[in-house]
Specification:
mainly beta
C-alpha cells in the first residue's frame, strides 16, 4: 500500500479530419521512506488489495424472529472490536496534478506490454528514479490512434453555443483504467475530463470546446402560443423554433436536443402536436434532430405541444 500508480491521459485532436491521439500515462508514486534510484518499473492493471476469490453463495434460511438477550450482547461486543478498514495509502496519496503543465520525456519506445487473461502488465526498460515524496513521477506508457468522427452538438434551452464532439471507437483494445484526462484541440488545451471504462459505451464521446461560428437561436413563437378553456379543462399550446446558422467555410453536422414536459399526474395531459421532424422519446420527452448545415446556410426546426389540465389547478414548471 506504500506504492502504486494512477492512469492519466492526454487526448489530442489535430483537426476534425484526423484520428484522436491518446497518450496513456501513469503517475507512479511511493512512500516507502527510501529513494528508488534508476529502477526498472513494471506496471500492472491488477489490484493486489482486491480479493480474486469468487464469493460463495450460501443457503438463504427464513425463520420467525425470536430475540435473545445474550445473543444481542454478544453481537454488541463483536461490533465493538470490529475495525473499519483504513483508507489505503494509494487512495490517500492519489494526486491529480495539472498534466497540461507537466512536461516529461516520452519513454513509450522503451515499453513492452504483456496481456494475460485478466490483466495487462507494462515493462519499462528505461531506468527511472521515483522519490519517496507526495509528488508522483510521470511515465509515458503508450501512444494510440483512435478512429474518430466529429460533429457538433447543441442544447439551446441550456446554452446557445455549439460544442464540437469527437466520437472515438476502438478504445476497448487499449485496456484503459479510470483516470483524469487532459483534452487538446488544434494544439490548445481546452479542458479536463475523466475516462471511466466501466461507464462508457462502445463509443467514447469527447467534448472539444465551443465554436462561436455556429450561431444558435431558440425562441417561443408568441403568435402560435395560446391559452384557452374547454369545459372544465384549461388548454395551453406552445410553439418553439430553433434556428441554426453556419458561418464556417465548410459544412457541419449538428445534433440538436430539446424536450417537451412529461406529465407525472393523470389529470395533466401532454400531447406532442408537431415534432418538427425530430426523433421523440415519449418516456423522457426528449426531442433530437441531426442536421447537415452547409456554409452560410440557415436551418430552422419548429415543434409544438399542448397541455390540458383542470382549470382550478395550477401547474409548476411549465414556463
Amino acid at each position: 500500500t506504500n506504492a502504486g500508480w494512477n492512469a492519466v491521459y492526454d487526448l489530442r485532436a489535430i483537426n476534425t479530419k484526423n484520428p484522436l491521439q491518446l497518450n496513456y500515462k501513469a503517475n507512479v508514486y511511493q512512500n516507502t521512506g527510501e529513494e528508488w534510484k534508476n529502477v526498472k518499473l513494471k506496471l500492472s492493471t491488477a489490484n493486489p488489495n482486491q480479493s480474486g476469490l469468487k464469493p460463495e453463495l450460501n443457503s438463504w434460511y427464513l425463520d420467525f424472529y425470536n430475540p435473545i438477550v445474550y445473543e444481542s450482547e454478544r453481537k454488541n461486543r463483536e461490533r465493538m472490536y470490529k475495525t473499519i478498514p483504513a483508507q489505503s495509502e494509494a487512495a490517500r496519496m492519489e494526486m491529480k496534478p495539472d498534466e497540461a503543465l507537466i512536461q516529461a520525456q516520452s519513454v513509450s519506445d522503451f515499453i513492452t506490454s504483456k496481456q494475460t487473461s485478466l490483466n495487462t502488465e507494462f515493462d519499462i526498460s528505461l531506468p527511472y528514479t521515483v522519490s519517496s515524496t507526495s509528488k508522483p513521477t510521470l511515465v509515458d506508457i503508450r501512444n494510440y490512434e483512435m478512429k474518430a468522427s466529429y460533429s457538433y452538438s447543441v442544447v439551446p434551452k441550456l446554452d446557445l453555443d455549439a460544442f464540437l464532439i469527437a466520437k472515438a471507437t476502438g478504445w476497448e483494445d487499449y485496456n484503459l483504467l479510470p483516470g483524469e484526462t487532459n483534452i487538446f484541440f488544434e494544439g490548445t488545451f481546452v479542458g479536463n475530463s475523466y475516462i471511466d471504462p466501466n461507464n462508457i459505451t462502445d463509443t467514447l464521446f469527447v467534448s472539444l470546446g465551443r465554436d462561436k461560428r455556429i450561431i444558435v437561436k431558440r425562441e417561443k413563437m408568441k403568435d402560435l402560443t395560446s391559452k384557452s378553456m374547454m369545459g372544465n379543462l384549461k388548454k395551453e399550446n406552445y410553439t418553439w423554433e430553433i434556428t441554426i446558422r453556419n458561418t464556417k467555410t465548410e459544412p457541419v453536422g449538428i445534433h440538436i436536443e430539446d424536450h417537451i414536459p412529461v406529465s407525472q399526474n393523470s389529470q395533466i395531459e401532454v400531447s406532442l402536436i408537431d415534432s418538427g421532424g425530430s426523433n421523440y422519446n415519449k418516456q423522457t420527452g426528449k426531442l433530437t434532430w441531426d442536421l447537415v448545415v452547409t456554409p452560410a446556410e440557415t436551418k430552422k426546426v419548429t415543434y409544438k405541444f399542448e397541455v390540458k389540465y383542470p382549470k382550478d389547478k395550477q401547474i409548476s414548471g411549465l414556463n
